[in-house]
# Entry
Amino acid sequence: MFNRTVEERDGMTDQLSRVFAALADPTRRDMVARLTDGDATVGDLAAPYAVSIQAVSKHLKVLEEAGLVTRSRDAQRRPVHLEAEVFDLMTTWIERYRQRAEERYQRLDAVLARMNDDTTETELPQEGTAS
Amino acid sequence: MSTAGSTTGSTATRYDEAAIEADPTVPMIHIWRDFAGTPEQLFRAHTDPELFARWIGPEGMGATILEWDATNNGKWRYAGGDRFDQQQFFRGSFHTVSPEKIVQTFTWEGMPDAVALETVTFEDLGDGRTRLHAQSLCDSFEDRDMWLRESGMEIGVQQGYAALDRMLADGSL
# Structure
């Protein structure tokens, strides 16, 4: 049971790494941005760039492997579709990281509050540090 | 992520809670947070080892400072217990220590070759509040994403323990 959970988690982390790597490229980020407006064909996506259809197809393959986009099998145009829920996964990781930073800074709030108190006292009782 | 990504700090934006941005073009993490305190107090909380140990974590334990020389070219090393009560060691160099800016390196000793370059600035907002901006430049996207994932896992495990507590309490174990 525990092992399966670990495997599922590793699966998620691998996907996240692919998502970050896929989005590290400015052309691919631009393509993703255009797909937020709706599905598009490879030809549509290639149009604004001075690159070949093959080069765009390569970028699409990276996005596809990251799970960011899918292409329908049936339609002849095979439009590219953005999988928005993958962004939710990434947002979840970043939000958890943010929460940890916030917890740390709330402890810093307490330290600062005590500093303000200390300015009114000359001597403060020293606590032993955690060992 | 709705942060403006401003490094100069727009005073129109308030960061009462930590805001974070994972840069898509370089392996960097930004954090912004406003504090009720002066830049001088924040500087002390980052450079006085006794004060630093009180907030850096982990929750309820505090860190154990092993080496600390908060001056230009100084070094630091501390230990903190992780979720499995294992001691984890972190170390680095203080590159520049000045009242409004601290530049230092950061390494987790479990992966000593992966070094992050961290810059912390304290900006006086003029109303008794100070804006902290921390940026951490990791040496690869893989390393940066590991930090993002690791913290996610930690919370996942904490939630796991909370679920276990409930199961113990309601007799299902």
Remarks:
- Helices of chain A lie at 2-22, 26-35, 42-46, 53-65, 85-118.
